[in-house]
UniProtKB/TrEMBL annotation:
Keywords: Hydrolase, Signal. The lineage of its organism: Bacteria, Pseudomonadati, Planctomycetota, Planctomycetia, Pirellulales. Pfam families: PGAP1 (PF07819). InterPro entries: AB_hydrolase_fold, PGAP1-ab_dom-like. The keyword Hydrolase applies. This is Alpha/beta hydrolase family protein. One of its GO terms (molecular function) is hydrolase activity, acting on ester bonds. Residues 1-20 form the signal peptide. Residues 112-166 form the GPI inositol-deacylase PGAP1-like alpha/beta domain.
Length: 334
């Protein structure tokens, strides 16, 4: 009986009609996600601007923040805290953070094009965190998605060439929709929203050498857009500690018959995991894998991947926010 109720509840949770404004996605995952999507998701996954944004001079760019993986606009608002304090018009773009990055880019493109139709005199600047930078680049650098109204892209900690940690992104939906969520939503709503948020396609796109990244990085930079890349170097593991872990692992394998192959595989993974090594990464993105060819304005600062968007504890994070403001003011009238 419990199993019957479980299936019935899941079918009921998936019953709302899919929003026509969200990109259609192939495959069974896309079909399931479309079935689970309802009007509430359409209202949540879109671009929203601050109430008084239209009062700013038309010459001033509208600054739109784009969050990253397993995140939402509220988590990354600190990136534009100084920008809002200077009175620049701001907004946020929210998208299903676990769906294919191409689908997220299509949604961003549709929102920017709609904004361009309604406000053709306005220019847009995108400020992104982590995976949001890849979503933005897919939107701006693909001729079929180019909205035509963006002239600056500032990316904080973009995994340009992927992150080795994406291979281990298991169970994060459980964390996002069940463990840290405290809004009192009933279980079936959480199930439905977890499906609408994506079915682990994003981590596949984030893996080094993925089809998505190969296609994205084969394109040229958009000439109409000025790029800035900010990369962090404040990971928590020293090079010495990483070396000691590798040596301990291999020595243990020598004393454990049958474990040599597995230990060697783990050692190879640790050998290239610059993401978590202090001075080489921010805890999630390696500096070497974050650099974007053709972008001279690349700044490396001592911030961690989450520290740069959470609170004011990291001097490097505060410096990153100042750099963001400085670059945006370069585009605004004095």
């Amino acid at each position: 009986m419990r199993r019957v109720l479980l299936v019935a509840g899941l079918l009921a949770a998936l019953s709302p009609a899919a929003s026509a404004d969200l990109p259609q996605q192939p495959g069974w995952r896309g079909w399931l996600r479309q079935c689970a999507t309802c009007d509430a998701d359409h209202q949540r996954y879109c671009m929203k601007l601050d109430d008084a944004w239209a009062e700013a001079p038309t010459e001033v760019p509208v600054v739109v923040q784009v969050h990253g993986f397993n995140s939402n606009p509220a988590h990354t608002r600190a990136l534009v805290k100084l920008v809002r304090g200077q009175g620049l018009p701001c907004g946020e773009f929210a998208y299903p953070n676990d769906q294919p990055l191409r689908a997220s880019a299509e949604l961003l493109s549709a929102q920017l094009r709609l904004f361009a139709e309604q406000h053709p005199e306005r220019r847009v600047a995108l400020v992104t965190h982590s995976m949001g930078g890849l979503v933005a680049r897919e939107c701006l650098e693909d001729d079929g998605l180019w909205p035509g109204n963006v002239d600056r892209l500032i990316m904080v900690a973009p995994p340009t060439h992927g992150s080795t940690l994406a291979r281990y992104a298991v169970g994060l939906d459980l964390w996002e929709h069940w463990i840290v969520r405290n809004d009192g939503a009933d279980p079936w709503r959480r199930v439905r929203e977890s499906i609408a948020d994506g079915l682990s396609e994003a981590p596949a796109d984030l893996r080094p050498g993925s089809k998505f990244l190969r296609r994205l990085n084969a394109r040229d930079r958009r000439e109409e857009v000025r790029y800035t890349v900010l990369l962090g170097s404040a990971a928590q593991v020293s090079e010495e500690h990483r070396y000691l872990v590798r040596q301990t692992l291999l020595k243990t394998a020598e004393l454990t018959p049958g474990w040599e192959t597995d230990a060697a595989a783990v050692d190879r993974a640790l050998a290239c995991m610059d993401e978590v090594t202090d001075g080489k990464g921010d805890g999630a993105v390696a500096i070497s894998r974050g650099r974007l060819p053709g972008v001279a304005d690349t700044v490396v600062l001592p911030f961690s991947h989450l520290g740069v968007v959470h609170g004011d504890q990291e001097p490097g994070g505060l410096e990153a926010r100042q750099v963001i403001l400085d670059r945006l003011l370069q585009a605004a009238p004095r």
